[in-house]
TrEMBL record:
Name of the protein: DNA mismatch repair protein MutL
Tree of life domain: Bacteria
Molecular-function GO term, any one: ATP binding
UniProt domain DNA mismatch repair protein S5: residue ranges: 209-327
Transmembrane feature ranges: none
Amino acid sequence: MADIIQLLPDHVANQIAAGEVVQRPASVVKELVENAVDAGSTVIQLIIKGAGKTLIQVVDNGKGMSERDMLLSVQRHATSKIRTAEDLFQLHTKGFRGEALASIAAIAHLEISTREEDNEVGIQLKIEGSTINDPKPIACEKGTSIAVKNLFFNIPARRNFLKSDTVELRHIIDEFHRIALAHPDIHFDFFHNNSELFKLPPSNLRQRIVNVFGGKTNEKLVPIKEDTDVVKINGFISKPAFTKKTRGQQFFFVNNRFVKNSYLHHAVSSAFEGLLKPGHHPGYFIFLEVDPSSIDINIHPTKTEVKFDEDQAMYAILRSTVKHSLGQFNVAPVLDFDR
Ligand code: ADP
Ligand code: MG
């Protein structure tokens, strides 16, 4: 029998990987904004047109890229964030898989403009399908701008599968909330079809929550805080009187990364037991800080799931911390310790 196995060409492999990383416009927003955060930016602009189906652009004032790095950044498994397998247990960045830009370039038109502080001019790279233009000099601010156009231009099934603009924009806003809440010290601007949806100046966490969800949120927040060997807990929970029938405002962040975790969610809900109106859900903005070597975030390409070594201890500590704050709130309504 003849040998029949072949290594796939890069662009095919990238397109396959893209299927997991990029489900919809919101996935691109997440990857680009996370890269901007990892680049040490203090100001990040998100510019969207047509709910991300026409344009997704992220402009940052971070450290920028050299020409070599810009060319490498769109290769698969190319990253500046880890070097060795051991680094996976000491993650301090949002990214580490080195596949977002390669995936996005495989399924959309990509335009990168970037300038490092020490360089007088910037450089620009355009990738449209298999056409990769030579980088050319461009006048731009320090930092990086990445524009993604015509998402899924070469995968009609995916493009047709996208939901209405209202639904896709909702997903984008959800991703934006998650990253804006995790980084209150960063200034964010978010434009959709030329109108500004969010303008978030640098602030503390409480102020950021209020700027994102509106002035009325302030009186609803109860601070929580705990410091143990296993985990440091910070953030806010909603007062029982202000809980909602929707599950909208429920956020866990582990080492400043938004994660979904039904086990920890249960810990919080059970702490609210007996305090909630029937059918109501607690709101929470909970930041868990743990030793990076005690978690595994590399469970899914989107990195929104996490495995804890000590999940039972986490559950117990979280539950009692929330209970404690709810109790304290009843006797001391003005208690506050801002992050
Ligand atoms: P990862 O974030 O996992 O490293 P990406 O494909 O998202 O992988 O990005 C590849 C590399 O490109 C990053 O490691 C980083 O060095 C560089 N990069 C991407 N976006 C930016 C940005 N906005 N500013 C500076 N460098 C960036
Ligand atoms: Mg990345």
